[in-house]
Amino acid sequence: MSRFPVTRMRRLRENATVRRMLTEVAIEPRHLVLPVFVCPGEGVSSEIASMPGVRHWSVDRLPEIVEPAAEAGVKAFLFFGLPTYKDEDGSSAFDPEQPVQRALRFLRGRYPEFFLIADTCMCEYTSHGHCGHLRGDGSVDNDATLALLARAAVSQAQAGAHMVAPSDMMDGRVGALRSALDGAGLQSVGIMSYAAKLASAFYGPFRDAAGSSPKFGDRRGYQLPPANPREIVRDALMDVDEGADMLIVKPAGPCLDIAARLRERTELPMAGYMVSGEYMMLKCAVSSGALDGERAMLEYHLSIRRAGCDLVITYYAAELARLLSEMN
Ligand code: PBG
Questions:
Q1: How far is the CA of 178 from the centre of ligand 1 (A)?
Q2: Does residue 18 lie in a domain region?
Q3: Which of 26, 41, 106, 121 is nearest to 67 (CA)?
């Protein structure tokens, strides 16, 4: 047993050099993934009202966001799209001429060292804003949705995505995507599944940014119940069995316990997604003067790594990477 006064923990803390030598968890630019919202049109770069500091980009102006990020060491991007049209079954999700597919083709050709991830879901593309095919009673039809998601994933992979990231929370989507990708000869395209995606209030600003709020009801029929840690872990482990290559836990901060539990149950790489509401929480606290922005940003992201996440998906990716490089 370590007992005071023989043991004094402060011996390891009082000197700045030994503190630095003993740092257990590191966060570096290579751990970060930057989400990017791609919109139709040309010459567009407009700030998103619900997420100050984050912008909608048309394909031609993407270099202005990805190049500075890459210079800071962030070379992985997660794409969301604002389509030119929406319908009942979200067919713009698998239209090769829509913004995400165009962005993937453009970037894959131009920046071969990037790692491109496409968010695969229906809610940005359906007229009703739910994440799949609706039955007459307004509920989402799981198995009919799998076919739509598979078409979207294949279309994104054909456009140049290295990985697809299903965020819909239908049962069986990872298996369905794996066989659709393999069937289309896309065996090398990976699946980064939103394995533990909670029905969360923290997606609010994103839904304004992506125009993906459900027109009626909510997503509790498919996203996971925040009060049920065992159910969340069970659901996430199904994605492992179905062949996911990486897992995502989200929203990251409120799910640190889930990340830590999953870290004990699987060897798969894992990402924590610091979502739009967490980004805004920190932004607002900093702009009100309540928090030191740099220190709070560092500590928040470090906590996600400490919980067991290899990667952090974050709107702060470029800013944080710049700060980390300055500190070195
Ligand atoms: C699409 C999707 C959402 C987010 C990522 N993919 C929104 C939702 O499920 O309502 C949230 C990301 C964020 O809040 O930053 N289903």
A1: 22
A2: no
A3: 106
Q: Which domain holds residue 173?
A: 25-327
41: Cα separation from own chain's centroid: 24
Number of domains in the chain: 1
Is position 2 within any domain? no
Residue 215 known to be catalytic: no
CB 158 within 8 A of CB 147: no
Residue 7 lies in a domain: no
* CA–CA dist 282, 208 (Å, integer): 18
Could you tell me if the CB of 198 is within 6 A of ligand 1?
no
Report which protein residue has its CA nearest ligand 1's atom 10. Answer: 203
Give the strand pairing for 163-166 and 45-47. unpaired
Beta strand 190-197 with 45-47 is unpaired
- Rounded to whole angstroms, the Cα distance separating 305 from 311 reads 7
Q: Are strands 311-314 and 270-274 parallel, antiparallel or unpaired?
A: parallel
Tell me the CA–centroid distance for residue 277 and ligand 1, in Å: 10
Q: What's the CA-to-centroid distance between 199 and ligand 1, angstroms?
A: 10
* pTM (two decimals): 0.97
Task: Measure the CA angle with vertex 283, ends 24 and 64; round to 5°.
Answer: 90
Residue 130 beta carbon below 6 angstroms from any ligand 1 atom: no
What CATH number is associated with residue 72?
3.20.20.70
Active-site residue identified among 75, 86, 215, 250:
250
Q: Is 123 in the pocket of ligand 1 (CB under 6 A)?
A: yes
Give the pLDDT band (50/70/90) at residue 61: very high
> Is-catalytic flag, 197?
yes
pLDDT digits (tens, 9 = 90+) for 273-307: 999 999 999 999 999 999 999 999 999 999 999 99
3 found inside a domain: no
d(CA 320, CA 74) in angstroms, rounded, equals: 10
Hey, whose CA ends up nearest to atom 2 of ligand 1? 167
